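Structure in, sequence out. Go:
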Protein backbone atom coordinates (compact mmCIF):
# COMPACT_ATOMS: atom_id res chain seq x y z
CA UNK A 1 0.00 0.00 0.00
CA UNK A 2 2.71 2.40 1.05
CA UNK A 3 4.76 1.66 -1.99
CA UNK A 4 1.92 2.14 -4.38
CA UNK A 5 1.16 5.48 -2.76
CA UNK A 6 4.77 6.48 -3.02
CA UNK A 7 4.73 5.58 -6.66
CA UNK A 8 1.69 7.74 -7.29
CA UNK A 9 3.35 10.63 -5.47
CA UNK A 10 6.45 10.20 -7.56
CA UNK A 11 4.35 10.25 -10.67
CA UNK A 12 2.56 13.41 -9.60
CA UNK A 13 5.87 15.03 -8.83
CA UNK A 14 7.12 14.23 -12.28
CA UNK A 15 4.15 15.88 -13.87
CA UNK A 16 4.02 18.95 -11.65
CA UNK A 17 7.69 19.71 -12.12
CA UNK A 18 7.47 19.24 -15.85
CA UNK A 19 8.15 22.66 -17.22
CA UNK A 20 5.63 24.55 -19.29
CA UNK A 21 8.22 24.59 -22.02
CA UNK A 22 8.38 20.82 -22.24
CA UNK A 23 4.61 20.66 -22.22
CA UNK A 24 4.29 23.24 -25.00
CA UNK A 25 6.84 21.35 -27.01
CA UNK A 26 4.64 18.26 -26.89
CA UNK A 27 1.57 20.19 -27.94
CA UNK A 28 3.48 21.71 -30.84
CA UNK A 29 4.81 18.32 -31.93
CA UNK A 30 1.37 16.73 -31.96
CA UNK A 31 -0.13 19.60 -33.93
CA UNK A 32 2.83 20.00 -36.26
CA UNK A 33 3.46 23.53 -35.03
CA UNK A 34 7.18 23.62 -34.29
CA UNK A 35 8.64 26.89 -35.57
CA UNK A 36 10.83 25.36 -38.23
CA UNK A 37 12.17 27.52 -41.04
CA UNK A 38 9.43 26.23 -43.33
CA UNK A 39 6.83 27.47 -40.85
CA UNK A 40 8.60 30.73 -40.20
CA UNK A 41 8.58 31.54 -43.88
CA UNK A 42 4.84 31.00 -43.89
CA UNK A 43 3.97 32.95 -40.78
CA UNK A 44 6.76 35.30 -39.72
CA UNK A 45 6.68 38.67 -41.36
CA UNK A 46 10.41 38.50 -41.93
CA UNK A 47 12.14 37.60 -45.13
CA UNK A 48 13.13 34.01 -44.81
CA UNK A 49 14.25 33.45 -48.35
CA UNK A 50 16.47 30.61 -47.21
CA UNK A 51 14.63 27.81 -45.50
CA UNK A 52 17.03 24.94 -46.01
CA UNK A 53 18.06 22.91 -42.97
CA UNK A 54 21.03 24.69 -41.38
CA UNK A 55 22.77 21.36 -40.89
CA UNK A 56 22.73 19.56 -44.23
CA UNK A 57 21.80 22.69 -46.19
CA UNK A 58 20.13 20.47 -48.79
CA UNK A 59 16.59 19.80 -47.66
CA UNK A 60 13.89 22.26 -46.58
CA UNK A 61 13.70 22.37 -42.82
CA UNK A 62 10.27 20.93 -42.15
CA UNK A 63 9.24 19.23 -38.95
CA UNK A 64 9.62 15.87 -40.64
CA UNK A 65 13.11 16.74 -41.79
CA UNK A 66 14.17 17.05 -38.15
CA UNK A 67 13.84 13.28 -37.93
CA UNK A 68 15.27 12.66 -41.39
CA UNK A 69 18.33 14.89 -41.69
CA UNK A 70 21.22 12.75 -42.85
CA UNK A 71 23.54 14.46 -40.39
CA UNK A 72 21.41 13.45 -37.42
CA UNK A 73 21.01 9.76 -38.16
CA UNK A 74 23.83 8.59 -35.89
CA UNK A 75 22.45 10.75 -33.11
CA UNK A 76 18.94 9.38 -33.59
CA UNK A 77 20.26 5.85 -33.33
CA UNK A 78 21.89 6.51 -30.00
CA UNK A 79 18.86 8.49 -28.78
CA UNK A 80 16.51 5.61 -29.47
CA UNK A 81 18.82 3.03 -27.95
CA UNK A 82 18.95 5.14 -24.83
CA UNK A 83 15.18 5.66 -24.78
CA UNK A 84 14.54 1.91 -25.01
CA UNK A 85 16.81 1.20 -22.06
CA UNK A 86 15.17 3.90 -19.97
CA UNK A 87 11.70 2.62 -20.81
CA UNK A 88 12.58 -0.95 -19.81
CA UNK A 89 13.95 0.34 -16.50
CA UNK A 90 10.91 2.46 -15.75
CA UNK A 91 8.04 0.21 -16.75
CA UNK A 92 6.02 -1.71 -14.18
CA UNK A 93 7.57 -4.88 -12.84
CA UNK A 94 4.75 -6.98 -14.24
CA UNK A 95 5.46 -5.60 -17.71
CA UNK A 96 9.18 -5.90 -17.21
CA UNK A 97 8.84 -9.65 -16.76
CA UNK A 98 7.37 -9.94 -20.23
CA UNK A 99 9.57 -7.44 -22.01
CA UNK A 100 13.20 -6.93 -22.95
CA UNK A 101 15.02 -4.27 -24.91
CA UNK A 102 15.46 -6.64 -27.83
CA UNK A 103 11.83 -7.67 -27.89
CA UNK A 104 10.56 -4.10 -27.65
CA UNK A 105 12.98 -3.08 -30.36
CA UNK A 106 11.54 -5.79 -32.58
CA UNK A 107 7.96 -4.75 -31.89
CA UNK A 108 8.67 -1.09 -32.56
CA UNK A 109 10.91 -1.92 -35.54
CA UNK A 110 13.38 0.67 -34.37
CA UNK A 111 16.31 -1.38 -35.62
CA UNK A 112 15.23 -0.81 -39.21
CA UNK A 113 17.21 2.03 -40.64
CA UNK A 114 17.00 4.37 -43.55
CA UNK A 115 14.11 2.67 -45.21
CA UNK A 116 11.05 4.65 -46.16
CA UNK A 117 9.20 2.77 -43.43
CA UNK A 118 11.69 3.67 -40.75
CA UNK A 119 11.49 7.30 -41.78
CA UNK A 120 7.72 7.21 -41.71
CA UNK A 121 7.64 5.74 -38.23
CA UNK A 122 9.68 8.59 -36.73
CA UNK A 123 7.43 11.14 -38.40
CA UNK A 124 4.40 9.39 -36.98
CA UNK A 125 5.89 8.96 -33.56
CA UNK A 126 6.83 12.62 -33.34
CA UNK A 127 3.16 13.46 -33.61
CA UNK A 128 2.18 10.91 -31.00
CA UNK A 129 0.69 8.46 -33.49
CA UNK A 130 1.09 4.84 -32.46
CA UNK A 131 0.06 2.21 -34.97
CA UNK A 132 -2.43 -0.55 -34.33
CA UNK A 133 0.26 -3.02 -35.37
CA UNK A 134 2.44 -2.02 -32.41
CA UNK A 135 -0.46 -2.42 -30.01
CA UNK A 136 -1.35 -5.79 -31.46
CA UNK A 137 2.25 -7.01 -31.24
CA UNK A 138 2.40 -5.94 -27.61
CA UNK A 139 -0.81 -7.85 -26.93
CA UNK A 140 0.69 -10.88 -28.65
CA UNK A 141 3.53 -10.83 -26.09
CA UNK A 142 0.99 -10.99 -23.29
CA UNK A 143 1.10 -7.31 -22.43
CA UNK A 144 -2.29 -6.24 -21.12
CA UNK A 145 -4.05 -3.24 -22.58
CA UNK A 146 -3.43 -1.11 -19.49
CA UNK A 147 0.23 -2.14 -19.35
CA UNK A 148 0.65 -1.36 -23.03
CA UNK A 149 -0.82 2.11 -22.63
CA UNK A 150 1.50 2.85 -19.75
CA UNK A 151 4.49 1.49 -21.61
CA UNK A 152 3.70 3.54 -24.70
CA UNK A 153 3.16 6.68 -22.62
CA UNK A 154 6.57 6.30 -20.99
CA UNK A 155 8.10 5.53 -24.37
CA UNK A 156 6.66 8.59 -26.08
CA UNK A 157 7.55 10.90 -23.22
CA UNK A 158 11.15 9.71 -23.14
CA UNK A 159 11.44 9.94 -26.91
CA UNK A 160 10.02 13.47 -27.03
CA UNK A 161 12.26 14.59 -24.18
CA UNK A 162 15.30 13.28 -26.05
CA UNK A 163 14.12 14.86 -29.29
CA UNK A 164 13.76 18.17 -27.47
CA UNK A 165 17.09 18.04 -25.66
CA UNK A 166 19.30 16.48 -28.29
CA UNK A 167 17.85 17.52 -31.62
CA UNK A 168 15.60 20.55 -31.20
CA UNK A 169 17.64 22.52 -28.66
CA UNK A 170 20.94 22.30 -30.57
CA UNK A 171 19.00 23.06 -33.75
CA UNK A 172 17.63 26.25 -32.16
CA UNK A 173 21.11 27.27 -31.08
CA UNK A 174 22.49 26.84 -34.60
CA UNK A 175 19.51 28.55 -36.19
CA UNK A 176 19.53 31.55 -33.87
CA UNK A 177 23.24 32.08 -34.56
CA UNK A 178 22.51 31.99 -38.26
CA UNK A 179 19.52 34.34 -37.87
CA UNK A 180 21.69 36.78 -35.96
CA UNK A 181 24.27 36.71 -38.71
CA UNK A 182 21.62 37.24 -41.38
CA UNK A 183 19.92 40.03 -39.43
CA UNK A 184 16.71 38.04 -39.33
CA UNK A 185 16.55 38.06 -35.55
CA UNK A 186 16.25 41.87 -35.34
CA UNK A 187 13.26 41.97 -37.63
CA UNK A 188 11.57 39.18 -35.76
CA UNK A 189 12.19 40.92 -32.44
CA UNK A 190 10.77 44.26 -33.52
CA UNK A 191 7.66 42.48 -34.71
CA UNK A 192 7.34 40.78 -31.34
CA UNK A 193 7.86 44.06 -29.48
CA UNK A 194 4.99 45.65 -31.36
CA UNK A 195 2.82 42.74 -30.44
CA UNK A 196 3.96 42.94 -26.82
CA UNK A 197 3.16 46.67 -26.63
CA UNK A 198 -0.34 46.01 -27.83
CA UNK A 199 -0.90 43.24 -25.32
CA UNK A 200 0.57 45.15 -22.37
CA UNK A 201 -1.82 48.02 -22.94
CA UNK A 202 -4.67 45.59 -23.00
CA UNK A 203 -3.36 43.81 -19.92
CA UNK A 204 -3.02 47.11 -18.05
CA UNK A 205 -6.66 47.89 -18.69
CA UNK A 206 -7.65 44.40 -17.64
CA UNK A 207 -5.53 44.78 -14.51
CA UNK A 208 -7.30 48.02 -13.65
CA UNK A 209 -10.68 46.45 -14.15
CA UNK A 210 -9.70 43.55 -11.93
CA UNK A 211 -8.43 45.89 -9.23
CA UNK A 212 -11.66 47.83 -9.20
CA UNK A 213 -13.67 44.66 -9.03
CA UNK A 214 -11.58 43.41 -6.13
CA UNK A 215 -12.08 46.71 -4.31
CA UNK A 216 -15.82 46.46 -4.80
CA UNK A 217 -15.91 42.91 -3.46
CA UNK A 218 -13.82 43.88 -0.44
CA UNK A 219 -16.10 46.81 0.33
CA UNK A 220 -19.17 44.63 0.03
CA UNK A 221 -17.58 42.08 2.32
CA UNK A 222 -16.70 44.79 4.81
CA UNK A 223 -20.30 45.88 4.88
CA UNK A 224 -21.43 42.34 5.50
CA UNK A 225 -18.90 41.88 8.28
CA UNK A 226 -20.12 45.00 9.96
CA UNK A 227 -23.68 43.81 9.66
CA UNK A 228 -22.72 40.47 11.18
CA UNK A 229 -20.93 42.23 14.00
CA UNK A 230 -24.00 44.35 14.66
CA UNK A 231 -26.18 41.25 14.77
CA UNK A 232 -23.68 39.56 17.07
CA UNK A 233 -23.64 42.51 19.41
CA UNK A 234 -27.39 42.65 19.43
CA UNK A 235 -27.51 38.97 20.30
CA UNK A 236 -25.08 39.51 23.16
CA UNK A 237 -27.09 42.46 24.39
CA UNK A 238 -30.26 40.39 24.28
ZN1 LIG B 1 19.16 18.53 -42.77
Amino acid sequence: MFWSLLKICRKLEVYSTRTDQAWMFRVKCINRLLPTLERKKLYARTHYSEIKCRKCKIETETMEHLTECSLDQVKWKSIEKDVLEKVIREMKESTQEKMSTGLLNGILKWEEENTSQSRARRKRFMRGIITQEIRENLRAEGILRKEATELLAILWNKWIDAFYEEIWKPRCQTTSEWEKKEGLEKKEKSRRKKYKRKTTQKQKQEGKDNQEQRKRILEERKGEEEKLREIGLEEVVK
